[in-house]
């Protein structure tokens, strides 16, 4: 399989020129190792995987000897299996001024992340690799950062093919795991079955001591049924036959493993009675479709959940875009007690970009009127609009556009 260029490469290389260690986290199988091995080609960087039992036992029992056997510069895969290595990595970092000596990958488990941040403070840059975005999968690379302005969107439109509902839902249904990019429906189904049984169940057992695989399987499916909805712990608990505190803990586990993404509600002291419950999205829409038994692209595209899966797609594409960008950003959603809702608010560079998400190719332009609730905040309104299935960028007013979803 040909290597697929990842947008995180730029940020990883940039951080590797500054930090002595760089840790790439993310869900299993999203391509962390493939990306770092690609970037290490032609160098003398040592590679070791802690999936290897002998290497793992040495790392756990004798970190000093481990680095005598595997000398920096080094790429250590699955570092979450030996968090005690971080103490020795700190010593070696402090003994050299050379940046980028330690490249690390690991599943984003809570204990490992806490130990990495505490032990390697000031020495490690921590980045997240997500499943393939639609632009990565199709080999498109936009030259500019997304700011939702008309010139930016028109520039992107000149590079991208026309927005196409079938293409979008092909990506949503197939998912962003590199291994499933070119397989048939039967192979894809077996892949996700294996992914859940082999990786996910093992990781939740190791991270959170979850041993009841039957109930956890029901819990996973219940989460998939809530895609793009506010989290309802009572529903999750009832479906999986567990307590609500257990449902909260299991969802925290899935978030820590980068299986789900919880979009927090917008908070502002000037506005009263705002929603406090996060919304639930799957980082890989293919996994959510598999859990929800949408067995073909057509049944998903034409089914009752198509709007929810389209929203999940847009939110996670935006998440990927901003995770890999040089900008400092914050993404939330707005909902108040009067049921006024804005699907996405992106705050960056002292601006707030309000965005609505509609599967329609011809949504109602009056939807941008709800953005006026932001006038009560201290934030300055930036460009925004309605992300939808339209084929080309169309201005709505001086700040907002109809935005084809393949331009994000």
Q: What oligomeric assembly is this protein in? A: single chain
* Regions with little confidence, pLDDT below 50 for 5+ residues: none
Helix content: 40-55%
| Derived structural class | alpha/beta
Mean pLDDT: 93
Number of strands: 14
What about the largest sheet? 7 strands, mixed
Net shape: globular
Total helical segments: 16
Radius of gyration: 22 Å
Spatial separation of the terminal alpha carbons: 26 Å
Strand content of the residues, in percent?
A: 15-25%
What report would you give on this structure?
The chain has 408 residues and is α/β, with parallel strands linked by helices. The protein has two domains: 8-128, Rossmann fold (3-Layer(aba) Sandwich); 140-407, no CATH class. The chain contains 16 helices and 14 strands. It has helices spanning 8-16, 32-40, 53-61, 63-69, 85-94, 110-119, 134-138, 150-157, 165-174, 185-208, 213-225, 233-240, 244-256, 285-291, 297-302, 306-323; strands spanning 21-25, 46-49, 74-77, 102-106, 124-128, 260-263, 279-282, 329-335, 341-348, 351-357, 380-381, 384-388, 394-395, 400-404. Strands 8, 9, 10, 11, 12, 13 and 14 form a seven-stranded mixed β-sheet that branches. The chain has a five-stranded parallel β-sheet with strand order 2-3-4-1-5, with helices on both faces. Strands 6-7 form a two-stranded antiparallel sheet. α3 (53-61) packs across α4 (63-69), α9 crosses α14 (285-291) and α11 (213-225) crosses α12 (233-240). It is globular and about 65 Å long. The mean pLDDT is 93.
């Amino acid at each position: 399989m040909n290597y697929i260029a990842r947008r995180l490469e730029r940020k990883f290389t940039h951080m590797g020129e500054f930090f002595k260690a760089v840790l790439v986290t993310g869900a299993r199988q999203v391509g962390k190792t493939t990306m770092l091995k690609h970037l290490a080609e032609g160098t003398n960087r040592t590679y070791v995987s802690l999936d290897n039992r002998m290497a793992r036992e040495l790392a756990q029992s004798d970190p000093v000897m481990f680095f005598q056997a595997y000398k920096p510069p080094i790429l250590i895969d699955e570092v979450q299996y030996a968090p005690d290595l971080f103490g020795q990595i700190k010593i070696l970092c402090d003994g050299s001024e050379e940046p980028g000596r330690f490249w690390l990958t690991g599943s984003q488990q809570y204990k490992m992340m806490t130990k990495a941040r505490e032990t390697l403070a000031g020495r490690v840059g921590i980045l997240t690799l997500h499943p393939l975005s639609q632009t990565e999968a199709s080999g498109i690379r936009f030259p500019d950062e997304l700011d939702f302005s008309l010139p930016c969107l028109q520039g992107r439109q000149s590079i991208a093919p026309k927005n196409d509902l079938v293409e979008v839902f092909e990506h949503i249904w197939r998912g962003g795991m590199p291994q499933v990019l070119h397989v048939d429906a039967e192979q894809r189904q077996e892949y996700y079955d294996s992914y859940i049984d082999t990786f996910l169940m093992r990781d939740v057992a190791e991270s959170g001591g979850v041993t009841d695989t039957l109930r956890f399987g029901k819990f996973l499916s219940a989460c998939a049924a809530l895609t793009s909805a506010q989290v309802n712990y009572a529903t999750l608990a009832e479906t999986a036959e567990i307590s609500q505190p257990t449902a909260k803990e299991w969802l925290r586990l899935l978030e820590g493993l980068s299986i789900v993404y919880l979009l927090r509600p917008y908070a502002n002291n000037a506005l009263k009675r705002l929603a406090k419950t996060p919304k639930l999205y799957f980082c890989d829409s293919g996994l959510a479709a598999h859990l929800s038994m949408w067995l073909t692209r057509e049944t998903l595209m034409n089914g009752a959940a198509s709007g929810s899966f389209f929203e999940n797609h847009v939110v996670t594409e935006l998440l990927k875009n901003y995770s890999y960008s040089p900008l400092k950003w914050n993404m939330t959603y707005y909902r108040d007690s009067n049921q006024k809702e804005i699907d996405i608010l992106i705050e960056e560079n002292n601006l707030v970009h309000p965005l609505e998400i509609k599967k329609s190719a011809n949504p109602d332009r009056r939807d941008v009127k709800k953005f006026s609730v932001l006038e009560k905040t201290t934030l300055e309104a930036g460009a925004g609009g309605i992300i939808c299935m339209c084929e080309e960028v169309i201005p709505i007013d001086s700040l907002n556009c109809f935005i084809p979803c393949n331009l994000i």
